[in-house]
Design brief:
With about 240 residues, the protein is an alpha+beta fold. Helix content is about 20%, strand content about 15%. The chain is built from five helices and twelve strands. Strands 3-9-8 form a three-stranded antiparallel beta sheet, covered by helices on one side. It has a three-stranded antiparallel beta sheet with strand order 4-6-5. The protein has a two-stranded antiparallel ribbon with strand order 1-2.
């Protein structure tokens, strides 16, 4: 069984915004595992088998593959258990709770903050990420992810309100995330996505049945006619009324 291990540091100071990933081994934090992943048959809930160690005090949590996840694999489908916080509801929380929400959420195209109820929130940013959001609302592996490799994401798609200093360590690291990154880099992200989407039906897709029917239809239309591609820019936050 493919699994992903979690590593923890108690001194986390860097935002971890995230994705649901398949397949995972769940740490026994409140006994939570992802229903959508369990439905797909890829959940291993075995607390004695989890791997926990101090790792990167300046970063905090990280998620690592222990077996191959092929390029083209859908790694995230937002399920009905995700916590969705409207701009109005966000303002009703105390400052302390707002800080927690900001740390563990991403902002969708409607300006709603999404907090993953499972371990999705612990995936870190990397400027050379190996998974990325698509304009279809799911995330995809944009290259093969090998055992022992950290699974990473592109935070620039998450509609940031502020700048974030980076510690991804890549030679091409941007050093800082800014709210302008979406406009500056979305065409590069689209190119990476378009390289991986055609592989969807060539690799196992345990999360495919969890996509909404209209999403599956739109993806199939793209696979038949590439000019029907939906850019990742569809996730750009719309101006709030």
């Amino acid at each position: 069984m493919d699994v992903i291990s979690l590593y923890y540091s108690p001194n986390s100071s860097t935002k971890n915004a995230g994705v649901n990933l398949f397949p995972i081994v769940a740490l026994p934090i409140a006994g939570i595992i992802s229903a959508s992943l369990k439905q797909a048959g890829y959940i291993l809930y075995d607390p004695p088998a989890h791997s926990t160690q101090i790792h990167w005090p300046e970063v905090g949590y990280g998620v690592f593959a222990t077996q191959l996840i092929p390029q083209g694999t859908i790694t995230y489908v937002k399920d009905s258990l995700e916590i969705i916080i409207s701009p109005e509801d966000y303002l009703q929380h105390s400052q302390e709770m707002q800080d927690v929400i900001e740390k563990y959420s991403y902002k969708d195209e409607n300006g709603y903050r999404i907090v993953s109820w499972d371990f999705a929130k612990y995936v870190n940013h990397c400027c050379q990420c190996n998974t990325i959001s698509t304009g279809y609302g799911f995330e995809i592996a944009i290259r093969d992810i090998y055992p022992g490799e950290q699974i990473t994401d592109e935070y620039g798609i998450f509609n940031l309100d502020y700048c974030m200093d980076l510690q991804c360590g890549e030679t091409a690291c941007r050093k800082r995330l800014t709210p302008q990154d979406f406009d500056a880099y979305y065409s590069e992200w689209d190119a990476k996505i378009c390289t991986s989407l055609p592989l969807l039906h060539r690799v196992p897709q345990p999360l495919w049945p969890l996509l909404e029917e209209n999403t599956r239809r739109d993806v199939e239309e793209y696979l038949r006619h590439t000019d029907a591609y939906r850019s990742v820019y569809a996730l750009r936050m719309k101006p709030l009324p």
